[in-house]
Design a protein that fits this description.
The chain is of the alpha/beta class and 560 residues long. The protein has 19 helices and eleven strands. A six-stranded mixed β-sheet has the order 6-5-4-8-10-9.
Length: 560
């Protein structure tokens, strides 16, 4: 009897050649090394830009001192009095690491914001490339890097100083990625944890991160016509609120900082002005237009027009995302297989941009350009949307059109490089720090422990690396100076007697001046003028009252 040999059936297709594991690991190692080198280079570039554009102020210096307290073991910042944007779980850990490595020094005013900005760029590039392959992914990531790594002076001014909510933008981007890209229960839990940490350090996270995730989840349920699609993002948003509330209760139980009052005045006139500012300052942050922020300036129109391609890309990306959102709400249709998570990501980013605009409109209490800092997170979200649009165009274009798209992208990138080079070479005085001269004067006169107005206090402490310590004071109800009730620590004033008082005539601060100092402590033995600063010295040391007002709520809204 004949026997036959059974041959394996052919599947009708050739098995794809497997890439050697060693070669894959080597490629990943090369990419990681290149990424680290690029991140270090960008950090130094950002640091140089920050030194050029940002003089530094007591907002940043206070966070450096918070970092010092955390580095010395006061992780919960017990004894501090801080507002809802304490940054205790957002920016402060980065400053604490900086203090551990370098000590208290003025370089941290520029280095830590530079590092946070690099992390925002890196996270944004990853989100822009997500879901795409090779060239398309590279084009999307490169678009984000080009726009944010080569900012105009105005964007650099707001992006490269802290704590101006750049760390908050980073937390929100990380949460968007966790909840949208390949959502799983663990990723949703991670998003909830990140958003909760953000809210504990900066309550703006509730508007910029939690609400966008919640809204994107509800839209997903409508689009997919099934409630299950909303489960991961909605649980992440609700979980973040619960975790933040439990975290705050735990902090109060173990002893942490005290939340103080923040008044938020609202007026119809100011709200109307703010709406107009959104449409002017948003493109100005991308390089087209100008914001009256000293010392930053986007320069002449010739340099501004070099940023036009970036502005057009970002605006078109936001409008396209909004159009897709409206279409999905009016005519819900399940996304194609594999695209659901990326649609959810884009919805998170879009709602983040919209929420950021609302935060600025409601939160900017005056026409002061400093409030433009509230728009920085929205710009970051919008740039990531622009990067995703570029990746989508590159992925869907045919070979010939890809060449044209590549030429356009290269030309746009070269325009940004030219604009950045023009701004860097412009004959503009670098940001100067008059507090450095004040610190030198105080050291020379052996004045080591004093009090002063807010803008003249913590900044001098950091500028002198802690050799001179100046604590902020505020005007009390009886017209006498007392300890500052916010952005300060109890042990700064308890059992302390101070040698001098300092205030800045060029930047008055809520009645803390020479007259109120004399009314509180009597006529000084000596008065010195150091530039715009006035230094009062008595023939005896003085103490300040520790009484501070009691607040019923950390946030009060009122119309005026």
């Amino acid at each position: 009897m004949a026997t036959s040999t059974l041959a394996p059936r052919s599947s009708g297709r050739r098995d794809a050649p497997k890439r050697p594991i060693a070669r894959t690991r080597a490629s990943i190692g090369v990419l990681l090394a290149a990424g680290v080198v690029a991140a270090v280079a960008l950090t130094f570039l950002y640091y140089a830009a920050s030194v050029h554009l940002v003089a530094g102020n007591s907002d940043g210096a206070t966070v450096v001192l918070e970092g010092k307290a955390m580095a010395q073991g006061n992780v919960a910042l017990a004894g501090w009095r801080l507002s809802l944007d304490s940054f205790g779980s957002v920016d402060v850990p980065f400053y604490a690491l900086g203090v551990l490595l370098l000590g208290v020094r003025p370089a941290l005013l520029h280095l830590v914001p530079a590092a946070l900005a690099v992390l925002v760029v890196a996270t944004g590039a990853v989100l822009a490339a997500a879901g795409h392959r090779r060239l398309a992914a590279g084009a999307g990531a490169a678009s984000v890097i080009a726009i944010l790594a080569l900012p105009g002076p105005d964007l650099g001014f707001y992006l490269l100083q802290g704590p101006w909510h750049v760390g908050t933008a980073l937390y929100c981007l990380v949460a968007f990625g966790c909840v949208a890209l390949r959502p799983t229960p663990w990723r949703a839990a991670a998003a909830a944890a990140v958003l909760a940490a953000g809210m504990l350090g900066d309550f703006l996270t509730a508007a910029l991160g939690v609400l966008p995730v919640l809204a994107a989840g509800l839209v997903a349920a409508r689009r997919e016509r099934r409630l299950r699609a909303a489960v991961p993002p909605v649980l992440a948003a609700i979980g973040a609120v619960v975790l933040a509330a439990c975290g705050r209760l735990l902090e109060e139980a173990v002893g942490t900082f005290t939340l103080v009052n923040r008044n938020l005045p609202l007026s119809t006139h100011q709200l109307t002005n703010n709406v107009g500012f959104v449409f002017r300052r948003f493109p100005a942050l991308l390089g087209l237009g100008a914001i009256p922020a000293d010392p930053a300036s986007n320069g002449p129109s010739a340099a501004q027009w070099l940023h036009l391609p970036a502005v057009v890309l970002v605006v078109v990306a936001v409008l396209a995302a909004a159009a897709r959102l409206v279409t999905r709400l009016v005519r819900p249709r399940p996304a194609r297989a594999g695209a659901t998570s990326f649609t959810l990501l884009e919805d998170c980013l879009l709602f983040g941009v919209l929420a950021d605009g609302a935060v600025f409109v409601l939160g900017a209490a005056s026409n002061n350009p400093e409030y433009t800092k509230y728009l920085t997170p929205g710009v970051a979200f919008a740039v990531v949307l622009g990067g995703r649009l570029v990746a989508q165009l590159a992925a869907g274009a045919r070979a010939r059109r890809r060449g044209a798209l590549a030429v356009g992208l290269v030309a746009s990138a070269l325009a940004l490089v030219a604009g950045f080079a023009y701004d860097a070479a412009a004959d503009v005085d670098p940001a100067t720090q008059p507090a450095a001269a004040l610190g030198s004067f105080l050291l020379a006169h052996h004045l080591r422990l004093g009090i002063g107005d807010y803008w003249s206090s913590s900044l001098v402490t950091v500028q002198t690396k802690g050799q001179v310590v100046v604590r902020p004071v505020a005007l009390g109800y009886a017209g006498k100076l007392r300890r500052d009730d916010r952005q300060s620590a109890d042990d700064w004033y308890q059992n302390q007697r101070f040698q001098f008082f300092v205030c800045d005539l060029a930047r008055p601060w809520h009645g803390v001046n020479v007259a109120t100092a004399e009314a509180t402590f009597g006529k000084p033995a000596s008065t010195y003028a150091v530039g715009s600063y006035r230094v009062l010295v008595w023939d005896h040391r003085v103490a300040v009252s520790l009484k501070v007002p009691a607040f019923h709520s950390p946030l009060q809204l009122y119309f005026r």
